[in-house]
TrEMBL record:
<dbReference type="InterPro" id="IPR035595">
    <property type="entry name" value="UDP_glycos_trans_CS"/>
</dbReference>
<keyword id="KW-0328">Glycosyltransferase</keyword>
<dbReference type="InterPro" id="IPR002213">
    <property type="entry name" value="UDP_glucos_trans"/>
</dbReference>
<dbReference type="Pfam" id="PF00201">
    <property type="entry name" value="UDPGT"/>
</dbReference>
<protein>
    <recommendedName>
        <fullName>Glycosyltransferase</fullName>
        <ecNumber>2.4.1.-</ecNumber>
    </recommendedName>
</protein>
<keyword id="KW-0808">Transferase</keyword>
<comment type="similarity">
    <text>Belongs to the UDP-glycosyltransferase family.</text>
</comment>
């Protein structure tokens, strides 16, 4: 597809969970294979990226014009982390306006025959930018979609969008078989994301996704941030059912930075402060809780979680964002969103850290004091947890996350689910029970830790490139470059 040292253009969707693995892929292609890369994104994302990753001679950052207020969005909303979930669809629709400018930029890049970067031969874009396949083919360029989501989660999400009306009819029953996945256990209708569940085949967001996914599958191949040995049902689905080349090149993780910035997001808790706090805790005693860069709980869910944390004997680090009912940019109001006196009591006992908005996740997951991760099962978080052998307590929120959680529970054995969605009712007693099941020396907890350690070895092996040995992901990366 592309040759070593070739110029590749990359275009991630405007969300932290997308930009981070795209950057990691760019760095891998640059370091291992000497490729030159142009990463395209909207002005604010590029500005943030250039402050945390000053462009190197081989990785160039390029702005594409975008003004969120032209689309009825809040000013400077160029990333899903700046938006409350009810505005996500509007943001996706606004992203369609990037098409003419992208086309123009690509035409200019193709004319750029001189200089360090030279004419690009290959375009790697987000699955949400399915419309780029057409532009790549018009320009005679190869195109690859990069799925930042694991193969099983992506395959189920893609397949459920495609089979929407039929699936909806089935999902009215409590349980149903996922089309295309006879080998996976039955699904429950609550595992479908909100737009799919609500849809009778005409929900605008669901139809939008169906269209972009269909366009994206006109690509020349699919690069996935996953590991073949861990995610075979999904990779085989794309290969066999969709007949497309698939390269599993993960886990793509950004190396921990010394500073507080990762992909442009400010960490309120510095890695040093976090390490000092964790150093004082006994091994395997801390629960890390984060729902990723763009999700949050409802106020009542937050209350129940806080009550559970107080009732349990475990330590915790909890990344909080304003609950669903509030503006995402507002200050986090602990007196309104947490039980009275909670923060004071937690501080007095030195039992937990409450971090607003953003924590140094890799530092936390790599620390020996961390025992489990309560997560929305976003794929970056899953990879980051498993590479450190940390089992998960899943609370999937949106999109493909329920399918990912299902896979981690049923096939990999490293997760138990505690709840589903942003609006479900939860009881603090049930949360405590799940925490204790996973974090204590129970049979299930021990088994999950063992499986998480096995997954860690599989993930590490995939990326090995030493003494003539190449792991599956390194081989896949080379295959992609020479295909
Ligand atoms: N992240 C972080 N600190 C936080 C929250 C998130 O560093 O407080 C990073 C996390 O390490 C991961 C990414 O943001 O790399 C979130 O991606 P994921 O796929 O887990 O979820 P999404 O944000 O896309 O829902």
């Amino acid at each position: 597809m592309a040759q070593n040292k070739e110029h590749i253009v990359m275009f991630p969707f405007m969300a932290q969970g997308h930009i981070i693995p795209f950057l990691a892929l760019a760095q891998l292609l640059e370091k291992k294979k000497g490729c030159t890369i142009t990463i395209i994104n909207t002005p604010l994302n590029i500005k943030k990226l250039s402050s945390s990753f000053p462009p190197s001679s081989s990785i160039r950052l390029l702005e594409i014009p975008f003004k969120s207020s032209d689309h009825g969005l809040p000013p400077d909303a160029e990333n899903t982390n700046a938006l409350t979930p009810h505005l996500f669809f509007k943001f996706f629709q606004a992203s369609l306006s990037l098409k003419p400018s992208f086309k123009h930029l690509m035409h200019n890049l193709v004319l750029e025959t001189n200089g360090q970067h030279g004419r690009p031969a290959c375009m790697i874009t987000d699955i949400f930018f399915g419309w780029t396949t057409e532009i790549a083919h018009e320009l005679g360029m190869r195109h690859a979609v990069f799925s930042i989501v694991g193969a099983f989660g992506m395959a189920c999400y893609y397949s459920s969008c495609l089979h929407l009306p039929h699936l909806k009819a089935k999902s009215d029953e409590t349980e149903f078989t996922l089309p295309d996945f006879p080998e996976a256990n039955k699904c429950h209708s609550s595992q479908l994301s909100e737009s799919l569940r609500a849809s009778n085949g005409t929900d605008p967001f669901a139809l939008y996704l169906k269209k972009v996914f269909t366009e994206a599958m006109k690509t020349n191949g699919l690069i996935i941030n996953t590991v073949e040995e861990l995610d075979r049902i999904g990779t085989m689905y794309f290969r066999k059912t969709l007949n497309m080349p698939v390269w599993a090149v993960g886990p793509l993780l950004l190396p921990s930075e010394n500073g507080t910035n990762r992909a442009g997001k400010e960490a309120k808790l510095t890695p040093e402060a976090c390490k000092n706090w964790l150093d004082a805790k006994t091994p395997n005693s801390v629960l890390y809780i984060s729902f990723g860069s763009q999700n949050t709980l409802s106020k009542s869910q937050m209350m129940q979680l806080a009550m559970a944390l107080e009732a349990s004997s475990k330590n915790f680090i909890w990344v909080v964002r304003p609950p669903l009912e509030y503006d995402i940019d507002s200050e986090f109001k602990e007196d309104e969103c947490l039980p009275e006196g909670f923060v004071h009591r937690i501080k007095a006992q030195n039992k937990g850290l409450i971090v607003e908005q953003w924590a140094p996740q890799l530092e936390i997951l790599s620390h020996k004091a961390t025992s489990a991760f309560m997560s929305q099962c976003g794929w970056n978080s899953v990879m980051e947890s498993l590479i450190h052998g940390v089992p998960l307590i899943g609370w999937p929120m949106a999109s493909e996350q329920s399918f990912t959680a299902k896979y981690l529970v049923e096939q990999v054995g490293v997760c138990v689910e505690v709840a589903r969605g942003r609006s479900c009712e939860v009881r603090h007693e049930d949360i405590v029970a799940k925490m204790e099941l996973v974090m204590n020396e129970t049979e299930k907890g021990n088994q999950m830790r063992r499986k998480a350690c096995e997954a860690k070895e599989i993930l590490k092996d995939a990326m090995k490139d030493e003494d003539g040995y190449k792991g599956s992901s390194i081989k896949a990366l080379e295959d992609f470059l020479t295909a």
